[in-house]
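In the previous chapter we treated chains in isolation. Here, by contrast, the input contains four separate entities that must be folded as one system, with a combined length of 656 residues.
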Amino acid sequence: MNIYDIAEKCGVSIATVSRVLNNNPNVSAATRARVLAVMEEENYTPSALARGLGTGSMRMVGVLCTTLCNPYYADALAYVEAHLRRRGLHLLLRCTGTDPQENSQALQYMLQNHVEAILLIGAIPPAPEEEPALAAAARQVPVILLDGDLDLPGVYCVCGDHKGAIMELVGQLVRRQRRRILLLHDAMTYSCRQKIDGYTDAYATYGLAVDPQLIVAVDSDLDAVNTCIKRLLVNRVTFDAVIGAEDMLALGAQKALQRTGLSMPIIGFNNSLPARCATPELTSVDGDLEALCDAGIRILEDLLEQRPAPAHTRIPTQLVERATFRNN
Amino acid sequence: MNIYDIAEKCGVSIATVSRVLNNNPNVSAATRARVLAVMEEENYTPSALARGLGTGSMRMVGVLCTTLCNPYYADALAYVEAHLRRRGLHLLLRCTGTDPQENSQALQYMLQNHVEAILLIGAIPPAPEEEPALAAAARQVPVILLDGDLDLPGVYCVCGDHKGAIMELVGQLVRRQRRRILLLHDAMTYSCRQKIDGYTDAYATYGLAVDPQLIVAVDSDLDAVNTCIKRLLVNRVTFDAVIGAEDMLALGAQKALQRTGLSMPIIGFNNSLPARCATPELTSVDGDLEALCDAGIRILEDLLEQRPAPAHTRIPTQLVERATFRNN
DNA sequence: CTCCTCTCTGTAAGCCCTTACAATTTCGAG
DNA sequence: CTCGAAATTGTAAGGGCTTACAGAGAGGAG
C-alpha cells in the first residue's frame, strides 16, 4: 500500500495525496477529507524512508552512549529522549562501550542515517584513534558531547566541573588532616580521567606527594571493590579517606570498611539513588544531571537553528554532605 | 557525494560501485580496489535511507521502553542493545511513559521506519485503547513484549513470574504469623499489576481478608514513600511486614521504619544495586533480567528467521534472602 | 462577455540506492 | 583460430515519497 494506491482509490494524483500527508493548505477540504478517509480505511503507513529521501531529513538524532549500565547515563538518556520526543525528533541509539573502533563505526552509522545531530553521552577520554572520525562527523552535523570535554572544531562539550569538585574535596579533607586519600575509579569515561587530574593537582597544590598506590582502578561492582579494599589492607596500604569516582565505588568501599570496623570519610560521585539508600547515607558530589542535559539540549537547538553556541560549557557541581562525610 | 559521483570518478557504472558497497563477488579485484580508494578519498557515506528503500529493509529494530528511570528497564535496554549491535541490527528508541496515545504513536512511527521488529520493554497494563494499535503492528512485524503479558495474536510475551513469586512470599510471611502485609506499588507496569493480583490471590488462598488500606500506590521515590509510611502510621494503619513492588519502594519503607524504630520483614523486587547497598541489606525478588532478555532475544531471532516461537514465556524468579527478611 | 487572478490539481523530475537482465570481455579447450 | 562458458560490467527499472512548475477551473472586476 503506497501513495499511488491511495491516489488511485481516491481518483486524485499522488501530489495531492502527498499534500494531504504534509498538511499542505493547497487542498480543498472535500478532497482532503476523502483522502484521509481512504488512508484510514486502508491503514496506510507512509514510508519515513521515502519521505526522508525526498526531503533529505529524517528528523532523527543519533545518540551514542558509553554505557547504560551506569544509571547516571541512563538517566541522561531518559532526559534527552523525553526532550527530543516533545520536539518531534527521533532517536537512534547505540552504546559504544570502551572500544574506540566501535565508536567510529557508530558515528559512521549515524551519518549514513542522515541524523540531524549526534549526541555523545559520556565519552571515552579523547582516544587519538577516534578523533578523526569525530572531527569528520562534526563537519557534517552538529556534534554535542555530554559529560566530556574535547578540543575539536565542531564538537560542543558540556561537562560537570568534576575536576574543581575533587580539588575542593581533597582540600577539605587535607585541612582535616587527611593525607592519604584513596581514589577509586573505573578508568572509563572522560569525567573519570578528569577526577584523577583534579586529585593529583590538589595534592600538588598542598605540596603533598601523590602515592600512586592510592589511585586504584576497579570495576563499579560491590564485590570487586570489596576484594580490592581487602587486598589493599592486606598489603598494608594505609589510607584515611576514600573518594569513589562513582557512588558505587564509594559504596563498595563503605561496605568493605564496615566489615573491617574501620571508619573514615567516604565520598562518592553522582549523588545517585543508592547513595541515599545506604546506611549511613553516602556523601556524594551531585553533577546536576538536569542542568547538564539542559545545556546540551539548548546547544542542540541552537545549532539546529543555525545559531551560535558555546563550544565549552562547564556545569558547577555541588557536594551533598551526608553522614559519611564526618566519619572519623 | 553520491554513488554517481563515485562511479564517474572511477570510470565505472553505478552498478559496480553498488557491488563494491555490498561486497558482491562479481567485481574484479582491481576495480574493487580502485572504487574503495576513491570512496575513502572522497569520504563517501552511502545513504542508509536509499539502501533501505532499495532493499526494503533498514536492519533496524524499534524499542519502546516504558521508562528508563527504572534502572531495571535501563539494564534491559542495555542488554538488548548489546545483542542487537552484535547482530548488526540498529535500534530506534522511544520511551512511552504511561500515556496510551503516546504508545500508539510510537508504534506507528516504528512501522513508518520499516523496523524489522518491535520490542516493548515493560508494558503498561493492557489499556483497551492501545490494543488495536498493537495488534495492527503485530500484523506487520514481530512484536515482543518484555516484562508484560498480553493475549494478542502476533504479540510474543516474556514475563517474570511475579505473581507466583509474591504468592510464595506472602505464604512464607503468613506462616510466620504476618497477617497484615503492606504492599507498596507504583501502579505503572503490567508486572506491578500482576503483583497485586498475586497478593490478593495469596490472601484468598490462606482464607484471609485483604485490607485495601494495605495496598498503597506511591511513587518510586524515597521521600514519597517516607511520607506515605508516616501517613499510614498517623492514621493507625498497622502492618507487620512490607513488600515493595520495586526495591526503591521497599528501601523507602525501610528508611522510614528505621526512623520510627519499628522493625519487620521488608522485601523488594528486582534485586537492584540499591538493595545490596542498604544497611541492613534488603531482601529482594530477583527477576533474572538476563534470562528475561535472553528469552526475548531468542524469540526475536526465531521470528526474524520465520521460525515459530512461544507466545508466552514465563521466567522463574528467585527470592534473594538478606538481612531484612528475618526482621521481627 | 472577457480577462485576470486565485485556488486546486496534475505531471514529471528528482532523492540515492539495489538488482534483474543484457552486454561485453576474457580465456581455455578443441 | 573458433566457440562457448565464465567473469565482469553496464543499463534501466524500480522503491515511495517531495516539490517545482505547469495547467485547469472558478470567480470577480471591468
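Chain B has three domains: 3-52, 60-160+289-316, 162-287+319-326. Residues 3-52 of chain B form a domain with the 434 Repressor (Amino-terminal Domain) fold (CATH 1.10.260.40). Compare these points with the single-chain example from earlier in the chapter.
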